[in-house]
Amino acid sequence: MTELPARRLLLVHAHPDDESINNGVTMARYAAEGAHVTLVTCTLGERGEVIPPELAHLSGAALGGHRRGELTAAMRALGVDDFRLLGGPGRFADSGMTGLPDNDDPGCLWQADVDRAAELLVEVIREVRPQVLVTYDPDGGYGHPDHIQAHRIAMRAAELAAEAGCPIAKVYWNRVPRTVAEGAFARLDEELPGLPFEKAAGVEDVPGVVDDERITTEIRGEGTAYATAKTAAMSAHVTQITVAGPHFVLSNELAQPVFTTEYYELVRGERAGDSDGGARESDLFAGIETEETP
Ligand SMILES: [Zn+2]
């Protein structure tokens, strides 16, 4: 096995684009710092809605293939070389939005056996031996079946990997503190008349919003090259995201702020620093003794 860097971060996501929206700053920072960053995306998002009219003809496998190209461009922007599709490209189909007949497609991620899908992720964990895993909360951030299933697969894989002698020291869920989301949308509402978007989304449209006290960790990116890289990575997902300045829209055309600080809740492992819950961690690897892999 080739020698891996001392610090190794694994992120598990449902569709191409989720990684850039949730973790673009984090991925860019750790890649730039020489950590090994591995992204596992569970589906190609081939049931996503397409924004640009000139690409509206793309659907199904053609859209999946196109989004694979977008993901490649996004990873180039973030400086991440190791990105994979769970079980290989096309192994699990996008399940579509909650309640649609797509959810019943036997090949979709929602219908996948969690243990068997988790075994595929355990293979990656055994190869890369990450100390840190990042994924969604049990609701998948906002209830999309593929996000819920990605959460289940990631958490189950962490358990199975630990049983197989390959424990992951820290597991985090993607979060946004409620006051940060509220503040950002209040500013956005004021700025909306000057923006190229007609309507704004609301706090309830942001995945993973929780009360501030649950936030354990923040990765700050304001004014850094990491924030620029995040915006570039989001922009690479042309079919899914339109970025304008510090704002973006998804296919619902509702403006949202780009968060250049990314927030996390530690759910497994030891929180570094203040044990009374005072200061937030500023490093996902804080408190982890890293050594070179044999
Ligand atoms: Zn998604």
TrEMBL record:
Per its record, the protein catalyses: 1D-myo-inositol 2-acetamido-2-deoxy-alpha-D-glucopyranoside + H2O = 1D-myo-inositol 2-amino-2-deoxy-alpha-D-glucopyranoside + acetate
Which SUPFAM superfamilies is this protein grouped with? LmbE-like
Q: Does the keyword Signal apply?
A: no
Keyword annotations: Hydrolase, Metal-binding, Zinc
Q: Where is this region: Disordered?
A: 271-294
Required cofactors, per record? Zn(2+)
UniProt signal peptide: none
Q: Where is the composition biased (Basic and acidic residues)?
A: 271-283
Work out whether the entry's keyword set contains Chaperone. Answer: no
One Pfam annotation, family name? PIG-L
- InterPro entries registered for this protein in UniProt: GlcNAc_PI_deacetylase-related, LmbE-like_dom_sf, Mycothiol_biosynthesis_MshB
Which residues does Zn(2+) bind?
H15, D18, H147
Q: Out of the domains of life, which is the source?
A: Bacteria
The EC designation for this entry is 3.5.1.103
**Free-text comment on the cofactor:** Binds 1 zinc ion per subunit.
Main enzyme class: hydrolase
* Protein purpose: Catalyzes the deacetylation of 1D-myo-inositol 2-acetamido-2-deoxy-alpha-D-glucopyranoside (GlcNAc-Ins) in the mycothiol biosynthesis pathway.
Family assignment? Belongs to the MshB deacetylase family.
> What name has this protein been given in UniProt?
1D-myo-inositol 2-acetamido-2-deoxy-alpha-D-glucopyranoside deacetylase
Q: What is the lineage of its organism?
A: Bacteria, Bacillati, Actinomycetota, Actinomycetes, Kitasatosporales
Q: Encoded by which gene? A: mshB
